[in-house]
Task: structure prediction
Amino acid sequence: MSAEKKINTHERSQHEQKKHAALPDINSSFSEWYHEVVFQAELADQAPVRGCIVIRPYGYALWEEIKKILDKKIKDTGHQNAQFPLLIPESFFKKEAEHIEGFAPELAIVTHAGGKKLEEPLVVRPTSETIIHYMFAQWIRSWRDLPLKINQWANVVRWEMRSRPFLRTTEFWWQEGHTAHETEKEALLEVQTMLLEYIDLVENYLAIPVVAGKKSESEKFAGADITMTFEGLMQDGKALQMGTSHMISQQFAHAFGIKYQDRNGGEAYPYLTSWGATTRLIGALIMTHGDQKGLIMPPRVAPIQIIIIPIFNKNMPSDQIEKAALAIQGTLGNEFRVTIDADTHTTPGSKFYKWELKGVPLRIEIGPRDIIQQSVVITNRLTGEKQTVTWQDLLEVIEKELQSIQTMLFERARARRARQWHKVAKLIDFADDLKNKGGFYQTGWCRSPICEAALKEYQATTRCLIEEKQFLHCFNCDLESPSDVMVAKSY
Amino acid sequence: MSAEKKINTHERSQHEQKKHAALPDINSSFSEWYHEVVFQAELADQAPVRGCIVIRPYGYALWEEIKKILDKKIKDTGHQNAQFPLLIPESFFKKEAEHIEGFAPELAIVTHAGGKKLEEPLVVRPTSETIIHYMFAQWIRSWRDLPLKINQWANVVRWEMRSRPFLRTTEFWWQEGHTAHETEKEALLEVQTMLLEYIDLVENYLAIPVVAGKKSESEKFAGADITMTFEGLMQDGKALQMGTSHMISQQFAHAFGIKYQDRNGGEAYPYLTSWGATTRLIGALIMTHGDQKGLIMPPRVAPIQIIIIPIFNKNMPSDQIEKAALAIQGTLGNEFRVTIDADTHTTPGSKFYKWELKGVPLRIEIGPRDIIQQSVVITNRLTGEKQTVTWQDLLEVIEKELQSIQTMLFERARARRARQWHKVAKLIDFADDLKNKGGFYQTGWCRSPICEAALKEYQATTRCLIEEKQFLHCFNCDLESPSDVMVAKSY
Result:
């Protein structure tokens, strides 16, 4: 784990402490709990524009940790980062019929610029297939130019009627990969490869177990032939789509004229993919791991892995205690992300409260008695367990504790999901539980949109097709089910 | 220097090679040379929206190297990254009179979204003072909340009538720092600190010598009390503003109601600063170091520091040669950014041409004879010098060569600037040279906007006030000059 040092002498001042009320009950008021924890832990703030948020430093530091890991994965799998324009001519969206149909209701449009009405309105990108495929058409001339594997880190805008911080916001931040390949097989492999990279990211770094599979026709991306999704189950029993990987329809290559000379000298169109993951991952992390005290950050992505709190009292000069805290930070700072909260205007108690709320995995207290004994007290955010550790053993214990929290968070989420993963043949037998308790319902489905629509009554949808066949027939009719489907309510 | 490995087996295919025409003459057609080198070296491409560009992977990799260095500097000086909304209510711009006056002609406006006309139009941010100060007003309540030191990496849009890739584009990418302080002194120190960080970045990493100083009243940022600038002198004798650091007018704190309780329990307004540097830095790098063959990348920011070119011939199987190239890359890859161009469809000659155009500082050739002698041939992009180096000495020689190129680029630019830095008392004596040859003209100035406006006739402006007093009187009238001023034509 990489190293970072910081001292916050007054990041949270006493007067701000007052604004922290106890969090709403996580079991009975999950939605209110979520909102409060986002704002009180200073991950984000409401922006003065409909549905938009400000990502505050603590939230953005978390996003930077996630980005660092995902960016490396993207580069290691042979993609290159680039930047495409924010503003896209409106006509580009009309070139692919399904795409415009899906996105039209969500578009934000620039009609005036430089003091004049524009001849053609410009769309603030909701996703960049159109502009990137337009450029691909300039760049791809020969089979030698393939594969072309591009990624972009960017902000996108989709007009949202009902927004929730991180989960659904008018502007959000993401990466969008766009690739072009000679063969369908190679493109399908790309779709699968990036899906697996995403799953590795969320399971092994964010500690969130997911179910992955293909979206149904009605749930797939506007313009995709195949949409692969990976979804987590939140504490309130709702599914959360955490990212998608698409096999893009050949219509795009034709619509944008991405023609090239193939190996035989003939004319061909490439197979296209796109895949993206967004700041919604932060919402998933909060809703998977949080508890009544606030956030719990998985150590591998925690912006601060260890918070050191010097315990000042009259038995020792403050600067001597602070010096010992700095020495501890020095010892740990090369391997871990460590911050000291040396504010002298706040009580240890309110510091404990604050850093628990922010979900820092480990807390180290060091006071006069600890200094005399050459030890510190370590508290585990997840279990609440305290232990006294000598300076000599510190590095080793910290390493173990962080790894244990990382593993326990994942295992806890997996066990919860197992309890909420139901296998039921008929909708009539799980409809009430689906509606009232939530959870994943694995069942059979004939693939008909009519049967799928029967789920609407319970505010549920098909989340993904899964590669198991435990049920022979549809949850709604008596027709055969080719393979199982996962049904849930969702964000 | 950090490590990165890549193999491009066909990044530039033969058919694309053909599209490379010789570059226009750098001396007689600098502007055309600039455009061609940007496109041919694949730093950027024209976008289908007025004044916008696409930053291609090679250009974006350069930007990522620059970002990495600057982001570290920003964090090391105690700032935290955050994200603020792209869309800003139009009314926010009207709260500060000078600010709206300066930016109104450049704004792009969203009038429709979600299929409806908006009640209040939204501005696509041209800079984020207004939205950030609005949030500062929520966050700053007590002197304990100060200083507040925030930075944002973002895209911004300013409608440009005459765009040039990287130098002036409708959308550009930048960081914008925004800070709030208790005292004017502290804010002034912040303005100066960030100016010095920028100068360190451009001089010691981009190898571009700059002149720094205060902008005149007419040239400063719309809404600033003081604008500090740092400017380089390009090869065609024009100055380029490379970034700015502002003391923001107290009007902003009042306009947005950023009130707080000071140390004495009274009501106070903070002192604000902002500072930014943009993708224009890439333009500065190209125009400072390029030559007739194309770009020259300063090693410390070069996306590829070393290109290895295996020389295939009949005396040895290709895979043996490629294996040796891979071994060399393995040796160097932990310390340097190294790529192999193993394309078997392109001649070594066209590879040399391509990587010279792209400005890779060092080229390593390895063929059958080199392998037998356990050596390679290294070519220096700046001097063109070739040397044979044994595998044993390779790491040491590469390290030295890269450092030498970094130093020579800076010294060469500094020497050129010294030749073009003229000290002349009266405009009448330098007007012709200013107009026809360009260059920096250090002179005296009474500070009157009327005398400043006399420069317009020669397409020149004051670039910055400098802390020297070699001239007692104004270049245009006979009034006293408080200190010298730098005059030049500029981008």
In short: Residues 394-419 of chain A form the longest helix (26 residues). The radius of gyration of chain A is 25 Å. The domain at 306-406 of chain A is CATH 3.40.50.800 (Rossmann fold). Chain A has three domains: 42-289, 306-406, 421-489.
